[in-house]
């Protein structure tokens, strides 16, 4: 009798065994979907702005270690190096910018594609090599994938860019600040042997640094120019 009475009480509360459940509100379903979508977006942003930096810095470290081992090989050819398609994505030189910190050093890899720039600073293969007459042009991320050029807009005229090759140490001096010049990503004149003078023949070694101007994806590119002021053999 006690059990029967308990069942009767339960039935009166609306939880009848075997009865139909109350339908889920469409607003509840929508709320769950939006919550899940928000979590996915946060996860993606977290990976882009934090995770990729960790992975890229680890890869950059591996690239620098491999490069220094290669330089220690007496069979390695001297500068300038014959660059081939098999070298794309591989480090060939090191770059230091003292104004960005004493410990700021990155590998310079061949290529400026997405995969190349995940490993360090990229070199435009159609431009000159370090120390050569002409334009040695580089690109790097300001955000994500290691963000080597995150603080590049802080650079001023007169700041030095140091390039280490197998045989020498090269010092370039900036003749313009990256905060002074913004171009669109289609304006390739900045990569010319003499930037801004398409038909001119270069007479000295130059350097060009390019990066995204904004901290979000946009076609704006900040650009700095410089010239070689010294070269010291190792």
- What is the CA-atom radius of gyration, in angstroms? 28 Å
> Major sheet, described briefly?
8 strands, mixed, barrel
- Give the percentage of residues in beta strands: 15-25%
What structural category characterises the helix and strand content? alpha+beta
- Output the strand order for the largest sheet: 1-2-3-4-8-9-6-5
Based on Cα principal axes, name the global outline. elongated
Q: What's the end-to-end separation, in Å? A: 100 Å
Low-confidence stretches: 1-16
Q: How many distinct beta strands?
A: 9
Q: Give the mean pLDDT.
A: 87
- List SSEs in N-to-C order: HHEEEEEEEEE
Share of helical residues: 10-25%
Number of helices: 2
Please explain how this structure is put together.
The chain is α+β, with helices and mostly antiparallel strands and 234 residues long. The chain is 24% helix and 25% strand. The protein has helices at residues 2-12, 26-71, and strands spanning 91-96, 105-110, 121-123, 134-139, 160-164, 168-174, 182-184, 205-212, 220-233. The protein has an eight-stranded mixed β-barrel. A hairpin with a 3-residue loop joins strand 5 and strand 6 (168-174). The longest helix has 46 residues, at 26-71. It is elongated and about 85 Å long.
């Amino acid at each position: 009798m006690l059990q029967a009475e308990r069942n009767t009480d339960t039935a009166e509360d609306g939880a009848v065994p075997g009865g139909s459940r109350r339908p889920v509100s469409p607003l509840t379903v929508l709320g769950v979907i939006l919550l899940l979508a928000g979590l996915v977006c946060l996860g993606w942003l977290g990976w882009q702005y934090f995770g990729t930096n960790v992975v890229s810095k680890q890869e950059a470290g591996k690239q620098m270690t491999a490069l220094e081992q290669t330089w220690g090989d007496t069979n390695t050819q001297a500068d300038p190096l014959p660059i081939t398609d098999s070298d794309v994505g591989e480090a060939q030189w090191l770059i230091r910018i003292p104004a960005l910190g004493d410990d700021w050093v990155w590998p310079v890899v061949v290529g400026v594609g997405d995969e190349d720039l995940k490993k360090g600073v990229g070199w435009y293969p159609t431009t000159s090599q370090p120390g050569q007459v002409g334009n040695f042009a580089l690109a790097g991320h300001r955000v994500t994938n290691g963000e080597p050029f995150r603080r590049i807009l802080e650079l001023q005229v007169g700041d030095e860019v140091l390039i280490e090759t197998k045989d020498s140490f090269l010092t370039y001096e900036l003749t313009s600040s990256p905060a002074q010049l913004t171009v669109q990503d289609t304006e390739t004149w900045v990569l010319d042997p003499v930037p801004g003078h398409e038909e001119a023949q270069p007479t000295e070694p130059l350097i060009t640094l390019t990066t995204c101007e904004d901290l979000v994806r946009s076609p704006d590119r900040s650009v700095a120019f410089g010239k070689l002021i010294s070269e010291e053999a190792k």
